[in-house]
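Example 4.3 (complexes with small molecules)
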Amino acid sequence: MTSTHNPGPVSGPSPAFPRYSRTAQALHWLTSLLVLAVLPLAWVATSLARDAAAKPVLFQFHKSVGLTILALVVARILWRTFNPPPPEVSEPAGLALIARVSHWLLYAVFLLMPVSGFLLSAFNGSTTQFFYLFPIPGFEKNEAIRNLFQSVHRAGQWAVYALVLLHIAGTAWHVAIRRDGVLDRMLPEQKPLIRG
Ligand code: HEM
Ligand code: HEM
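Answer. The structure with protoporphyrin IX containing FE bound is encoded below.
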C-alpha cells in the first residue's frame, strides 16, 4: 500500500521542504565528527602519566583537531551570514527560543574552547605541531595568563558537555516524538524509494 499521509521529506524530493545548504550540512557534520575526536584525545592525554611517550603526541593531535574546529566554526558563521539557514520549524515559542539560544551558545563555546586552549598552550611557551605538518610557535611563557586560560578551558568543557547533550536530546525528541523532519533539514535530500 502506498503511503498518502506522509508528506515528509523522506518521501521524495520536495522543493517546498527547506534544508540547510550542502555546504552548511558538510561543515556541521565535519565539526561533529571532529568534536567526537577532540574530547577523547583530551581525556586520554590528560589521564596518561607525565612521562608517557604517547602523552605529547595525543596533545599535539588534540590541539590540531581543536584548531581545525576553530577554523570550521569561523567558516560556518561566515557562511551562515551570507547564506541564511532555512526558516525555523514551527514549535512552541519557548522551545523555539531554547533551540535558537542553544545554537548560538554552541557557536560561542566552540570558539571559546579552541581560543582558550590555544592561549593556554601558547602562554605555556609551547609550540603546536599542527598534525606534525608545520609548527605554530607559542609566546613567551607567562604562568599567570596560562593559569587563567587553563581555568577557562577546564571549566568550558562542562558547557560543551551540557550543550552537546541538550542538542542531541533535542534532535532525538524531534526524530522520535515530533517526527517533524528536523534532522532531514541537516541531511541531503533522499531519493524516493518508489518511482512512478
Ligand atoms: C573544540 C575545541 C576543544 C575542546 C572541546 C577541548 C577540550 C578539552 C578538554 C575536555 C580538556 C581536558 C581538561 C581537563 O583537564 O579537565 C582539554 C585540555 C587541554 N586542551 Fe583542549 N579543547 C579544545 C581545543 C584545544 C586547543 C585548540 C588547544 C591548543 C591549541 C587545546 C589545548 C589543551 C591543553 C594544553 C589541555 C591541557 C590543559 C590542562 O592542563 O588541564 N585545546 N581540552
Ligand atoms: C551527532 C550529533 C549531532 C546531531 C544529531 C545534530 C543535529 C542537528 C540538527 C538536526 C540540526 C538542525 C536543526 C534545525 O533544523 O533547526 C542541527 C543544527 C545545528 N547544530 Fe547540530 N547535531 C549534532 C552535533 C553538533 C555539534 C557537535 C555541534 C557543535 C558545534 C552542533 C552545532 C549545531 C548548530 C550551531 C546548529 C544550528 C545551525 C544554524 O542554524 O546555524 N551540532 N544539528
